[in-house]
Design a protein that fits this description.
373 residues; Heat Shock Protein 90; single chain
Length: 373
Protein backbone atom coordinates (compact mmCIF):
# COMPACT_ATOMS: atom_id res chain seq x y z
CA UNK A 1 0.00 0.00 0.00
CA UNK A 2 2.88 2.36 0.81
CA UNK A 3 4.60 1.54 -2.49
CA UNK A 4 1.32 2.06 -4.33
CA UNK A 5 0.81 5.45 -2.66
CA UNK A 6 4.39 6.51 -3.53
CA UNK A 7 3.88 5.40 -7.14
CA UNK A 8 0.61 7.33 -7.34
CA UNK A 9 2.19 10.49 -5.90
CA UNK A 10 5.12 10.27 -8.33
CA UNK A 11 2.71 9.73 -11.23
CA UNK A 12 0.60 12.75 -10.31
CA UNK A 13 3.66 14.98 -9.97
CA UNK A 14 5.15 13.79 -13.27
CA UNK A 15 1.81 14.07 -15.09
CA UNK A 16 1.35 17.62 -13.81
CA UNK A 17 4.86 18.44 -15.01
CA UNK A 18 4.09 17.08 -18.48
CA UNK A 19 0.75 18.90 -18.59
CA UNK A 20 2.35 22.21 -17.57
CA UNK A 21 5.13 21.76 -20.13
CA UNK A 22 2.67 20.95 -22.90
CA UNK A 23 0.42 23.87 -21.94
CA UNK A 24 3.36 26.31 -22.07
CA UNK A 25 4.34 24.92 -25.47
CA UNK A 26 0.79 25.30 -26.75
CA UNK A 27 0.64 28.85 -25.41
CA UNK A 28 3.76 29.60 -27.47
CA UNK A 29 2.11 28.08 -30.55
CA UNK A 30 -1.01 30.16 -29.96
CA UNK A 31 1.14 33.30 -29.58
CA UNK A 32 2.98 32.57 -32.85
CA UNK A 33 -0.31 31.79 -34.56
CA UNK A 34 -1.79 35.05 -33.32
CA UNK A 35 1.24 37.08 -34.47
CA UNK A 36 1.35 35.37 -37.83
CA UNK A 37 -2.39 35.81 -38.34
CA UNK A 38 -2.25 39.50 -37.45
CA UNK A 39 0.69 40.05 -39.80
CA UNK A 40 -1.10 38.06 -42.49
CA UNK A 41 -4.29 40.11 -42.07
CA UNK A 42 -2.54 43.49 -41.88
CA UNK A 43 0.16 42.76 -44.49
CA UNK A 44 0.45 45.50 -47.12
CA UNK A 45 0.81 43.58 -50.33
CA UNK A 46 2.01 46.63 -52.21
CA UNK A 47 4.91 47.01 -49.84
CA UNK A 48 6.64 44.04 -51.36
CA UNK A 49 5.98 41.65 -48.52
CA UNK A 50 4.94 38.63 -50.58
CA UNK A 51 7.55 36.43 -48.87
CA UNK A 52 6.22 37.43 -45.45
CA UNK A 53 2.67 36.69 -46.60
CA UNK A 54 3.73 33.21 -47.72
CA UNK A 55 5.55 32.60 -44.42
CA UNK A 56 2.67 33.78 -42.32
CA UNK A 57 0.22 31.78 -44.41
CA UNK A 58 2.35 28.68 -43.89
CA UNK A 59 2.36 29.24 -40.12
CA UNK A 60 -1.41 29.69 -40.04
CA UNK A 61 -2.10 26.63 -42.20
CA UNK A 62 0.29 24.40 -40.24
CA UNK A 63 -0.99 25.49 -36.83
CA UNK A 64 -1.48 22.16 -34.96
CA UNK A 65 -4.11 23.17 -32.39
CA UNK A 66 -7.89 23.11 -32.87
CA UNK A 67 -9.30 26.45 -34.11
CA UNK A 68 -12.79 27.81 -34.78
CA UNK A 69 -13.19 30.78 -37.18
CA UNK A 70 -16.27 33.02 -37.07
CA UNK A 71 -17.06 35.29 -40.01
CA UNK A 72 -18.91 38.61 -40.02
CA UNK A 73 -22.28 36.88 -40.41
CA UNK A 74 -21.68 34.52 -37.48
CA UNK A 75 -20.96 31.38 -39.53
CA UNK A 76 -18.42 29.04 -37.95
CA UNK A 77 -15.63 27.04 -39.58
CA UNK A 78 -13.21 24.67 -37.86
CA UNK A 79 -9.62 23.59 -38.29
CA UNK A 80 -7.74 20.59 -36.82
CA UNK A 81 -10.91 18.81 -35.68
CA UNK A 82 -12.09 15.46 -36.97
CA UNK A 83 -13.97 15.35 -40.30
CA UNK A 84 -17.22 14.56 -38.53
CA UNK A 85 -16.79 17.46 -36.09
CA UNK A 86 -15.90 19.92 -38.86
CA UNK A 87 -19.19 19.14 -40.58
CA UNK A 88 -21.23 19.52 -37.39
CA UNK A 89 -22.37 23.16 -36.84
CA UNK A 90 -23.72 22.33 -33.38
CA UNK A 91 -20.33 20.99 -32.30
CA UNK A 92 -18.55 24.16 -33.46
CA UNK A 93 -21.17 26.25 -31.68
CA UNK A 94 -20.61 24.33 -28.43
CA UNK A 95 -16.84 24.79 -28.72
CA UNK A 96 -17.30 28.53 -29.14
CA UNK A 97 -19.54 28.67 -26.06
CA UNK A 98 -17.03 26.65 -24.03
CA UNK A 99 -14.28 29.08 -25.08
CA UNK A 100 -16.26 32.15 -24.00
CA UNK A 101 -17.41 30.53 -20.73
CA UNK A 102 -13.78 29.84 -19.83
CA UNK A 103 -13.08 33.61 -19.86
CA UNK A 104 -10.68 33.48 -22.82
CA UNK A 105 -10.60 36.35 -25.34
CA UNK A 106 -10.78 35.48 -29.06
CA UNK A 107 -8.33 36.83 -31.62
CA UNK A 108 -9.90 39.56 -33.74
CA UNK A 109 -9.55 39.44 -37.51
CA UNK A 110 -11.78 40.33 -40.43
CA UNK A 111 -13.80 38.67 -43.16
CA UNK A 112 -14.19 34.92 -42.75
CA UNK A 113 -12.07 35.16 -39.58
CA UNK A 114 -13.57 38.06 -37.70
CA UNK A 115 -13.15 36.12 -34.47
CA UNK A 116 -10.71 33.25 -33.98
CA UNK A 117 -11.05 30.79 -31.08
CA UNK A 118 -7.95 28.71 -30.27
CA UNK A 119 -8.17 25.58 -28.11
CA UNK A 120 -5.68 23.35 -26.35
CA UNK A 121 -5.00 19.99 -27.96
CA UNK A 122 -6.87 16.86 -26.79
CA UNK A 123 -3.50 15.50 -25.70
CA UNK A 124 -3.36 18.06 -22.90
CA UNK A 125 -6.73 16.86 -21.63
CA UNK A 126 -5.58 13.23 -21.79
CA UNK A 127 -2.47 14.04 -19.78
CA UNK A 128 -4.55 15.81 -17.14
CA UNK A 129 -6.82 12.77 -16.91
CA UNK A 130 -3.89 10.38 -16.70
CA UNK A 131 -3.36 10.80 -12.91
CA UNK A 132 -7.01 9.84 -12.34
CA UNK A 133 -6.63 6.74 -14.50
CA UNK A 134 -3.35 5.91 -12.82
CA UNK A 135 -4.93 6.51 -9.41
CA UNK A 136 -7.70 4.06 -10.26
CA UNK A 137 -5.17 1.47 -11.43
CA UNK A 138 -3.04 1.90 -8.31
CA UNK A 139 -6.14 1.69 -6.13
CA UNK A 140 -7.09 -1.57 -7.83
CA UNK A 141 -3.52 -2.77 -7.33
CA UNK A 142 -3.69 -1.91 -3.62
CA UNK A 143 -7.11 -3.57 -3.30
CA UNK A 144 -5.82 -6.70 -5.03
CA UNK A 145 -2.77 -6.78 -2.77
CA UNK A 146 -4.94 -6.41 0.31
CA UNK A 147 -7.32 -9.13 -0.92
CA UNK A 148 -4.45 -11.54 -1.57
CA UNK A 149 -2.85 -10.75 1.78
CA UNK A 150 -6.16 -11.12 3.61
CA UNK A 151 -6.94 -14.40 1.84
CA UNK A 152 -3.48 -15.74 2.61
CA UNK A 153 -3.77 -14.76 6.26
CA UNK A 154 -7.24 -16.29 6.55
CA UNK A 155 -6.04 -19.51 4.90
CA UNK A 156 -3.11 -19.65 7.33
CA UNK A 157 -5.46 -19.11 10.29
CA UNK A 158 -7.71 -21.87 9.01
CA UNK A 159 -4.75 -24.25 8.80
CA UNK A 160 -3.72 -23.33 12.35
CA UNK A 161 -7.26 -23.86 13.71
CA UNK A 162 -7.65 -27.15 11.85
CA UNK A 163 -4.23 -28.41 12.91
CA UNK A 164 -4.79 -27.42 16.53
CA UNK A 165 -8.25 -29.03 16.56
CA UNK A 166 -7.02 -32.32 15.10
CA UNK A 167 -4.11 -32.42 17.52
CA UNK A 168 -6.51 -31.79 20.43
CA UNK A 169 -8.73 -34.64 19.27
CA UNK A 170 -5.69 -36.90 19.05
CA UNK A 171 -4.50 -35.96 22.54
CA UNK A 172 -7.96 -36.55 24.04
CA UNK A 173 -8.13 -40.07 22.69
CA UNK A 174 -5.73 -41.67 25.18
CA UNK A 175 -7.20 -40.36 28.49
CA UNK A 176 -10.75 -41.03 27.26
CA UNK A 177 -9.91 -44.67 26.57
CA UNK A 178 -8.29 -44.96 29.99
CA UNK A 179 -11.31 -43.42 31.77
CA UNK A 180 -13.67 -45.81 29.97
CA UNK A 181 -11.55 -48.69 31.21
CA UNK A 182 -11.70 -47.41 34.79
CA UNK A 183 -15.49 -46.99 34.56
CA UNK A 184 -15.90 -50.62 33.55
CA UNK A 185 -13.62 -51.67 36.39
CA UNK A 186 -15.62 -49.61 38.92
CA UNK A 187 -18.91 -51.07 37.71
CA UNK A 188 -17.73 -54.48 38.83
CA UNK A 189 -16.89 -53.03 42.25
CA UNK A 190 -20.28 -51.34 42.70
CA UNK A 191 -22.56 -54.19 41.73
CA UNK A 192 -24.10 -54.16 45.21
CA UNK A 193 -24.29 -50.34 45.45
CA UNK A 194 -26.99 -48.90 43.11
CA UNK A 195 -26.24 -45.30 44.08
CA UNK A 196 -22.66 -45.79 42.98
CA UNK A 197 -23.82 -47.22 39.66
CA UNK A 198 -25.94 -44.09 39.08
CA UNK A 199 -22.87 -41.93 39.53
CA UNK A 200 -20.91 -44.13 37.14
CA UNK A 201 -23.71 -43.87 34.59
CA UNK A 202 -23.55 -40.08 34.71
CA UNK A 203 -19.76 -40.26 34.48
CA UNK A 204 -20.16 -42.50 31.43
CA UNK A 205 -22.38 -39.85 29.83
CA UNK A 206 -19.72 -37.21 30.43
CA UNK A 207 -17.06 -39.44 28.90
CA UNK A 208 -19.36 -40.02 25.90
CA UNK A 209 -19.60 -36.25 25.64
CA UNK A 210 -15.80 -36.03 25.67
CA UNK A 211 -15.69 -38.53 22.84
CA UNK A 212 -18.19 -36.38 20.98
CA UNK A 213 -16.02 -33.30 21.56
CA UNK A 214 -12.96 -35.15 20.28
CA UNK A 215 -14.94 -36.25 17.22
CA UNK A 216 -15.99 -32.65 16.59
CA UNK A 217 -12.42 -31.41 16.78
CA UNK A 218 -11.30 -34.13 14.39
CA UNK A 219 -13.82 -32.87 11.82
CA UNK A 220 -12.46 -29.30 11.76
CA UNK A 221 -10.81 -28.73 8.40
CA UNK A 222 -12.72 -31.55 6.71
CA UNK A 223 -15.93 -31.38 4.73
CA UNK A 224 -18.69 -32.52 7.13
CA UNK A 225 -21.50 -34.85 6.11
CA UNK A 226 -24.86 -33.08 6.28
CA UNK A 227 -28.04 -35.00 7.12
CA UNK A 228 -31.72 -34.14 7.05
CA UNK A 229 -32.38 -33.48 10.75
CA UNK A 230 -35.22 -32.46 13.03
CA UNK A 231 -33.77 -29.27 14.49
CA UNK A 232 -35.94 -29.13 17.61
CA UNK A 233 -34.94 -32.65 18.68
CA UNK A 234 -31.26 -31.67 18.58
CA UNK A 235 -31.95 -28.50 20.56
CA UNK A 236 -33.81 -30.46 23.26
CA UNK A 237 -30.95 -32.96 23.52
CA UNK A 238 -28.52 -30.11 24.25
CA UNK A 239 -30.94 -28.57 26.75
CA UNK A 240 -31.43 -31.85 28.65
CA UNK A 241 -27.71 -32.48 28.91
CA UNK A 242 -26.69 -28.97 30.01
CA UNK A 243 -29.66 -28.34 32.26
CA UNK A 244 -28.60 -31.14 34.61
CA UNK A 245 -25.14 -29.57 34.80
CA UNK A 246 -26.27 -25.95 35.29
CA UNK A 247 -27.05 -24.02 38.47
CA UNK A 248 -30.56 -24.64 39.78
CA UNK A 249 -31.45 -20.94 39.53
CA UNK A 250 -31.02 -21.06 35.75
CA UNK A 251 -34.21 -22.01 33.90
CA UNK A 252 -34.38 -23.32 30.32
CA UNK A 253 -37.35 -22.34 28.16
CA UNK A 254 -37.20 -24.02 24.74
CA UNK A 255 -40.42 -23.37 22.82
CA UNK A 256 -41.58 -26.20 20.58
CA UNK A 257 -42.69 -25.00 17.12
CA UNK A 258 -46.18 -25.81 15.90
CA UNK A 259 -44.73 -27.71 12.94
CA UNK A 260 -41.72 -29.90 12.37
CA UNK A 261 -38.68 -28.02 11.11
CA UNK A 262 -35.95 -29.93 9.30
CA UNK A 263 -32.67 -28.79 7.84
CA UNK A 264 -29.50 -30.29 6.40
CA UNK A 265 -26.95 -30.19 9.22
CA UNK A 266 -24.05 -32.11 10.64
CA UNK A 267 -25.43 -33.11 14.04
CA UNK A 268 -22.13 -33.12 15.90
CA UNK A 269 -21.07 -29.70 14.68
CA UNK A 270 -24.53 -28.12 14.94
CA UNK A 271 -24.94 -29.32 18.52
CA UNK A 272 -21.48 -27.92 19.26
CA UNK A 273 -22.65 -24.47 18.14
CA UNK A 274 -25.75 -24.62 20.35
CA UNK A 275 -23.70 -25.86 23.32
CA UNK A 276 -21.26 -23.01 22.85
CA UNK A 277 -24.05 -20.43 22.86
CA UNK A 278 -25.64 -21.97 25.97
CA UNK A 279 -22.32 -22.12 27.84
CA UNK A 280 -21.63 -18.48 26.97
CA UNK A 281 -25.08 -17.62 28.31
CA UNK A 282 -24.37 -19.50 31.55
CA UNK A 283 -21.11 -17.59 31.97
CA UNK A 284 -22.92 -14.28 31.41
CA UNK A 285 -25.69 -14.89 33.96
CA UNK A 286 -23.66 -15.50 37.14
CA UNK A 287 -25.66 -18.56 38.14
CA UNK A 288 -29.23 -17.27 37.72
CA UNK A 289 -31.53 -16.25 34.91
CA UNK A 290 -33.30 -17.70 31.89
CA UNK A 291 -31.97 -19.29 28.71
CA UNK A 292 -34.57 -19.34 25.96
CA UNK A 293 -34.90 -20.75 22.47
CA UNK A 294 -37.55 -20.37 19.80
CA UNK A 295 -37.77 -21.14 16.10
CA UNK A 296 -39.77 -19.75 13.22
CA UNK A 297 -39.74 -19.87 9.45
CA UNK A 298 -38.58 -16.97 7.35
CA UNK A 299 -39.17 -17.61 3.65
CA UNK A 300 -37.12 -20.74 2.85
CA UNK A 301 -35.07 -20.54 6.05
CA UNK A 302 -35.49 -21.46 9.67
CA UNK A 303 -34.43 -18.88 12.26
CA UNK A 304 -33.26 -20.16 15.64
CA UNK A 305 -33.10 -17.49 18.34
CA UNK A 306 -31.05 -18.30 21.45
CA UNK A 307 -31.60 -15.80 24.27
CA UNK A 308 -30.36 -15.21 27.81
CA UNK A 309 -30.80 -12.67 30.60
CA UNK A 310 -27.10 -12.11 31.19
CA UNK A 311 -24.82 -9.07 31.18
CA UNK A 312 -25.41 -8.29 27.50
CA UNK A 313 -23.15 -7.21 24.64
CA UNK A 314 -22.38 -3.64 23.58
CA UNK A 315 -23.73 -2.81 20.11
CA UNK A 316 -20.20 -1.94 18.96
CA UNK A 317 -19.10 -5.51 19.75
CA UNK A 318 -21.81 -7.36 17.81
CA UNK A 319 -19.33 -8.31 15.07
CA UNK A 320 -16.19 -8.43 17.23
CA UNK A 321 -17.49 -11.34 19.33
CA UNK A 322 -17.05 -13.63 16.30
CA UNK A 323 -13.40 -12.71 15.75
CA UNK A 324 -10.73 -15.25 16.84
CA UNK A 325 -9.24 -14.34 20.21
CA UNK A 326 -12.06 -12.06 21.34
CA UNK A 327 -13.17 -12.92 24.87
CA UNK A 328 -14.44 -11.12 27.96
CA UNK A 329 -13.65 -14.08 30.23
CA UNK A 330 -10.41 -14.57 32.11
CA UNK A 331 -10.21 -18.15 30.88
CA UNK A 332 -10.57 -19.40 27.35
CA UNK A 333 -8.96 -18.52 24.03
CA UNK A 334 -11.92 -16.73 22.46
CA UNK A 335 -12.35 -19.31 19.71
CA UNK A 336 -15.84 -20.62 20.51
CA UNK A 337 -17.95 -18.11 18.60
CA UNK A 338 -15.35 -17.87 15.84
CA UNK A 339 -15.63 -21.62 15.24
CA UNK A 340 -19.41 -21.41 15.57
CA UNK A 341 -19.50 -18.79 12.81
CA UNK A 342 -17.33 -20.96 10.60
CA UNK A 343 -19.47 -24.05 11.23
CA UNK A 344 -22.74 -22.25 10.43
CA UNK A 345 -21.59 -20.10 7.51
CA UNK A 346 -18.91 -22.20 5.82
CA UNK A 347 -20.23 -25.70 6.42
CA UNK A 348 -24.01 -25.15 6.56
CA UNK A 349 -24.30 -22.11 4.25
CA UNK A 350 -26.26 -20.30 6.94
CA UNK A 351 -25.78 -17.21 9.03
CA UNK A 352 -25.17 -16.44 12.70
CA UNK A 353 -25.24 -12.99 14.27
CA UNK A 354 -26.17 -11.01 17.37
CA UNK A 355 -29.74 -9.89 16.76
CA UNK A 356 -30.11 -7.63 19.78
CA UNK A 357 -28.81 -7.06 23.29
CA UNK A 358 -30.07 -5.08 26.29
CA UNK A 359 -27.67 -5.12 29.28
CA UNK A 360 -28.98 -7.30 32.12
CA UNK A 361 -32.27 -7.85 30.26
CA UNK A 362 -31.92 -9.97 27.14
CA UNK A 363 -29.35 -10.89 24.52
CA UNK A 364 -30.44 -12.76 21.38
CA UNK A 365 -28.20 -14.72 19.00
CA UNK A 366 -29.87 -15.70 15.72
CA UNK A 367 -28.96 -18.69 13.53
CA UNK A 368 -30.41 -18.86 10.01
CA UNK A 369 -30.38 -22.20 8.13
CA UNK A 370 -31.98 -23.34 4.86
CA UNK A 371 -34.91 -25.65 5.60
CA UNK A 372 -35.73 -28.96 3.92
CA UNK A 373 -39.17 -29.53 5.38
Amino acid sequence: MVMGAILLLFTIMYSNFLADSLKKNEEKNIFLFKQALERFINQDVTSGGNNDIALHSTIVDSFPLPVVFEDETGNLQGQNFSEEELNDPEFLKRKKEEFLESGEIPIKGYGYSKYIYCFNSPLLGYIKLFPLVQGLMVSLYIALGYFLFSSSRKAEQNRVWAGMAKETAHQLGTPISAILGWIEYLKDSYTDKPEGLDVLEELKKDVDRLELVADRFSKIGSDPVLEDTNIYDELVEVKDYLQRRSPRKVSFVFEKPEYEVRAMVNKHLFVWVIENLVRNSLDAMDGKGTIGCKMYRQNTNVVIEMSDTGHGIAASKFKSVFKPGYSTKKRGWGLGLSLAKRIIEDYHKGKIYVKSSKPNEETIFAIVLPITG
